[in-house]
Amino acid sequence: MEDIYDVIIAGCGPTGATFANYFGKHNLKVLLFDTAPDIIDYPRAVHIDEDVIRIFQELGLYEDMKKDAIKPFENYALVSKKDKVLFQFQPDSSVSEDIPDCNWILQPEIEKHLRNGFSLYPNVTFLKETTWTDLSQTKEELSLVLTDKENTVTRVKAKFLIACDGGKSPIRKRMGISVYDFGFKKEWFVIDTNYFGKQLFSEDHKQFCDPKQPITYVNGVNNHFRWEFMVSEQDSALSDELLADKMIPKLKALFPIEEFEIIRQKKYAFHTLLANSWRSGRVFLAGDAAHQMPPFLGQGMCSGIKDAKNLSWKIVRACLNPGEETEQLLDSYYTERAPQVRKIIRLAAILGGFIQYSNPILSPLRNGLLRIFNILPSKPIDALINKHLYGLDIDNFSRFKHSLVGKRLPQPIVWTKDDQLYFDELCGFNWVVLYRAESKIYPLELSGVLKFIPLVTGFPIYGNEIKSVLFTKWMAEQKADFVIIRPDKFIFNIGNEKEYDTIIQRTQSYLNKIYSN
């Protein structure tokens, strides 16, 4: 007899584990399997942004993570060979109160917290050292044959399969999904270390723009330090050991190398790839299976986790209410996320081109441009980051969309009648209408989907009221009386009280279709 699940997740890296936490919270029956016996015990990804922290926060994992797995940093610097600042930038794209924009992580510890999270849900089953050997699907379901380390064969069925099985994704290949190569590829050599000395080092994230040897510097969580070295064509054939012998002496002028313990040294090649489709019937791609990018914006792992944020609530709706409307909702996963990831890949490649520029004659011109950029205000850079790293192209059925549709809603700490908490905690995974209580806006009495939250200027008296100076100011700046928020905390619509009836009726009509069960 075949076991039947709502969702099967292939791969228990950060992306797959995030999906499992989301589905666990929504009470779907989930099977998660991975080929490995355990978590990889050395660092790989080292950065997350505020948007990812916001995801961990709503999954109930952030408070424990920040104790041993997350460390904020403020400055991003492009420096010369001699560690002189060419360009320094303090990213300020966070829209959450008291949550930093840039953060170092220890990926093994992050994955432990994610696994501890989904282990709390009895509706999530996790199989280690398990592979799939056959995959088929119909219009209504899919079937997968699994084999464990004891060669025990199990056939399982599900409504959906999410492939989080890495850059080489066997499932992507099985589905015949091609990838687009942006053509930006380079080899780098990474050295991860633990520091056991007593000296203090710069907390800045640095890219050494040496045309002969570009180097990346990371002062990470606890005693973790990382250096990455671009590998030249003539060194490409060298083994990891020979590369280490050549690269480590380059650090001796700046660091007491004898006080660092090497925990990993490995050459790797980064790619710029984007799957041409992220869906084949009931199978979806996510994380590295869907996209791969250079590390220069720190968005590789972040992008996979954001895939999970975007797709999970749509899968939940499709499981509970299958039909044409939720099928279209599932298709929006690709149309919303793929354009955003495409922009990130291109921006990362442009930044990488600056860092990796190796022409010794023209590199002084590059350095001069960076020094000019360094005296310019940073606000345009923050606006560029917000537009390309965080905005989604959301279809809200409006002929003329407000410029904030598809943007992240700010997340202040708000006051209620009884408590003080982050706004996301108050929203949960609901569709929310935040509205100015002083406006002529009235909640829909019969709405079972929309959660109405009135924003007051005085102290909250009733249970659903909130007070927030940030939201009051933000509403005034936008000349808005209400904002409609999706379960993933992106803005679905926004307007004034004159527009309210038309927008809320259109929204309610749409939600009735995808929530009819």
Describe the overall structure.
The structure is a single chain. It is built from 13 helices and 28 strands. It is α+β, with helices and mostly antiparallel strands and 517 residues long. The strands form six sheets. Strands 1, 2, 8, 9, 10, 11, 19 and 20 form an eight-stranded mixed beta sheet that branches. A seven-stranded mixed beta sheet has the order 6-5-14-15-16-13-17. The protein starts with a strand and ends with a helix. The relative contact order is 0.12. Keywords: Oxidoreductase.
Number of helices, counting only DSSP H or I runs of 4 residues or more: 13
Largest sheet: 8 strands, mixed
Q: Radius of gyration from the CA trace?
A: 24 Å
Indicate the overall shape.
globular
Oligomer: single chain
Distance between the termini: 29 Å
What's the CATH C level of the domain at 3-67 and 107-180 and 276-354? Alpha Beta
CATH superfamily of the domain at 3-67 and 107-180 and 276-354: FAD/NAD(P)-binding domain
Q: pLDDT below 50 for ≥5 consecutive residues: which ranges?
A: none
Strand percentage lies at 25-35%
